[in-house]
Amino acid sequence: MFTSQTSSFQDSIDVEEKDDFDGEEIAGYSQKIQLNCYYTIYLYQGTSLTLIDSSLPSEAEPELRTYISRRLSKGALLGGMGNIATVELSIPEEAVGCYCCLLEQERSPEQPDADGNGYVICFMGGSEKGLNLFRLELDKYVQGLHSSLQTPELQNLETEVRPYLSRWYEESVMHIYRVVQLVQSNISFLLHAALSHTHVDVTNSDERTKADVSRFIKAASLQGLSQQDTTSASLCKAISEDTQSDLVIDCSTSPPTLSNNVSNRFCDDWIQAFLNAAERCNPFLLRQILENFKLKAIQDMNSLKRFVRQAEMSHYALFRCCQFLQGCGNGDVLLQNARAEHSDLPEACSIITVLEEFLREQSQAQA
């Protein structure tokens, strides 16, 4: 049983050996950690596309326009929802991932039934598989354009729209890479904070670094993924009532100084995987590792819940539960989440209390 768990855990960490992100992505990186990335924005009126601005080579833009027109004619672009696919264009990479999103204009009272008017925004770079990992970030970034796209003339193209579109890759894809580069081997403390719903306070830094860390914690958190919607709220309340302190990242030093830092063996085991991907300058691989980290944590949480249910009827199951917690290296986080989720089940809470005492005894014995 525990051999298979170890094997599964190692498979999760060894994503870079199984995935094709290195072959697809890394060849395009330079010392500036930047792929060849492109953007295009079209005005969409009725059934016609009018080019507003593009960073694509002149021979490639008409090819993209043909592709977008075909997608629109099939109804494949829904307002506000990004669509990601592979496109073949006359660019050095030939085939790249392409994110497209239709931003519909608000209908005026004079033309309440008018439809098909708006803007189509396209981001190209990396691969379809890589961009799919950042779909939510790309959707949110495109929505940030709404306030700048008020008139078809776009007098603010030079001052607002073009600079915003040009930063799509830096702002939507590179934040995880920047955080790993910032904290290096201390990334385990951020991972533990994300799993345990510990607040992270970034001091003496610019706003971009604060935003990067906040987005990393949100991306690594399991909030919203629990089977019970009340679990996250219950856990956050439990944390606020606890004596647990905020994790503080002081950026006045280089590297930053971390205070109130807590980790465990589970989070420590992922450090090298993150550092290896960062050394390869591969943000897509970093995101895949982060997703695998969350998946493994979820699998362990589900295993613990199953063991707790069995332990209500069997002392042997309770023994197996203790063994599982000792072996997974993430017992403190799992029990914290389990207590919040089973707060209204007295028998389960009694078992969790026994398990917490077992972990404390194990920790004291190893100290």
Q: Unreliable stretches, pLDDT < 50, 5 or more residues?
A: 1-7, 23-33, 227-241
Task: Please state the overall shape, judged from the principal axes of the Cα atoms.
Answer: elongated
The proportion of residues in beta strands is 5-15%
Helicity range: 40-55%
Characterize the largest beta sheet: strand count, sense, and whether it forms a barrel: 5 strands, antiparallel
Number of helical stretches of at least 4 residues: 18
The side-by-side strand order for the widest beta sheet comes to 2-1-5-4-3
Q: How many DSSP E strands?
A: 8
Q: What order do the helices and strands follow?
A: HHHEEHEEEHHHHHHEHHEEHHHHHH
N- and C-termini, Cα separation: 27 Å
Overall pLDDT score:
84
The Rg value, from CA coordinates, equals 24 Å
Estimated structural class = alpha+beta
Keywords:
367 residues; alpha+beta; five-stranded antiparallel sheet; three-stranded mixed sheet; 18 helices; 8 strands; 53% helix; disordered N terminus
Structure description:
By secondary structure, the protein is of the alpha+beta class. The chain contains 18 helices and 8 strands. The chain has helices at residues 2-13, 15-18, 21-25, 61-73, 128-132, 135-143, 157-166, 168-172, 175-183, 187-195, 207-220, 230-241, 265-268, 271-279, 283-311, 315-328, 331-341, 346-366; strands at 38-45, 48-54, 83-88, 95-104, 118-124, 200-203, 247-250, 257-259. It has a 5-stranded antiparallel sheet, sandwiched between helices. The chain is elongated, with a radius of gyration of 24 Å. It starts with a helix and ends with a helix.
